[in-house]
Amino acid sequence: MGDSTNRILQRLIRRIPYQMLQTMFGKWAHLSREDLHSLDFTQPKWVLTEHLLALCEEKGLTVKHITELEMIYIIENPNQGMWHGFQLLDAEEDAPSIELTQFKEQFKANLTELISHVSIKIKKHTDEAIWIRVAWGDNFTKPYHLKPTYVVHHLQTPYVFVTGVTSKHKPLLNQALVLATRYGSMKDAHLSGRNLTAIRDLLMRQYQQVFPTKHPKPLQEKNPVPRNPNIEKEQAENTENRLQMACEAFGDGTLPQMQKAVYKLETKFRDNSNKTLTGREEPFRGVVEFASTNLLESLRHCVSSGMASTPVTPLLSSITQKGRNYFVITDKGV
Amino acid sequence: MSLLKPFSKLPGLNTANILLVENEEQFQQKLADTVVLQEKTVNVNVLARSLPLPMENEESRPRIDLVVFIIHLTSELSFQSAETSLKYLDPGYFQGKVCFLVTNARNVSVPPERLVSVRKLAASLHCPLLCAEDQTTEGVTTAAHRLLAILKVAAGLVPMATGLYLSTLTRCTVPSDIDQQNFE
Fold this sequence. Notes:
The complex is a heterodimer of chains A (334) and B (184).
Chain A: H1 3-15, H2 18-27, H3 33-38, H4 45-59, H5 63-76, E1 83-91, H6 100-114, E2 118-124, E3 129-136, E4 149-154, E5 159-163, H7 170-181, E6 183-193, H8 196-203, E7 231-233, H9 236-250, E8 260-267, E9 284-291, H10 295-304, H11 314-321, E10 326-330
Parallel strand pairs in A: 8-10
Antiparallel strand pairs in A: 1-5, 1-6, 2-3, 3-4, 4-5, 8-9
Helix pairs in contact in A: 6-7, 9-10
Chain B: E1 16-22, H1 27-38, E2 43-48, E3 66-72, H2 76-86, E4 98-103, H3 112-124, E5 129-132, H4 137-154, H5 163-170
């Protein structure tokens, strides 16, 4: 194994937390049972790394095998790094009938045509998602494995999630994806976050949604707290209405864990008390950012407790309705 | 304007009713539960967010003996909502049947002017001002205990004491130098 391969393996082991190492190695097909037993998991990590390096040297493992381990780790823990959502547009006739082998061949062929030195690994996960790992090189250098790009695509859906791609390689990746999935183009869905499961659930609407009804009080199926007959709530109907509207806008139960919503304002300044800024022709540029550990949960609580006025303003409800968290607001609308 | 009137209904035997008005609707539930626990024979609590109370419940609502406005000093909206709700009370209530309860008075991030304005409001209406701590159970129990004491007098369950008499003793006063807060 070369020097660079050693370095890649070392970096990878350093990245994986100690508790997960044993499970990860168990899933990696290249270490047999006896090898696993021979590794002592009570030693400090650097000692373990040395043993592992020696073991891999003995077996003649290459970069390809190490990248498999990295992929296993990332698939198990996808919620790191910044994921961006993209949407594919203009489906051609055979787009819904693409299947895995066809997609794989097409993607590999397209990308290797565009850049000759690129390392691609495609894997299908149990929940119907295709994971692609791409390490980029250029026409003269070998692929650089320390900064790979990961792409997640669910076949037959027009959504793609990408992390770790630089602006130099983005158009190439886009082109390869568009051709392989038989769509016309790909656009930015303006949705990004650290938590892949959250942005996937938000974009593909996989959380519990509440639909508007003409006959309210559908939320009473939950266990009602036994009411004390001595305590009467006067404005209970208002509270129920607010809760209903909050759940309609944001969903019920556990919500996808978004961290940020950014609104970029390009509207004119409109406050009559400030004479210097009002009445200027060019728009007043500002950025409003909402940040929280669980943004949708906080917004839903704001609405149901009455802090935000109901009906829910479309600026906030578009986070869930349109599945975005970056908005540019101009005077004509969002 | 639908005013809440103090003496338009007959009182019940051995009952006293307290109305807790709070914009955020959080402290009132805890307080109501504690008040009901502490005094088993007596009361009925009514919880509201702001006045005026909805007309549909007019018939079934019992006679309210004490109205408590819960103001969280951390929020300006809380104070404003309480001020607007005051307009819907019949003046008969202000003779010992209204009380102000304030939370977070010791909080450093609260602007001191807000407490001053609540005190001025309470003093102008001749009502008592209580400070409560809503995060711990002891704080809630203490506040419930004090409210029960005032409630019993306001409902006429304590012999020889009326709400008006008690309020002259407990009403909030604002010393004249409160606007100059100097610590010399």
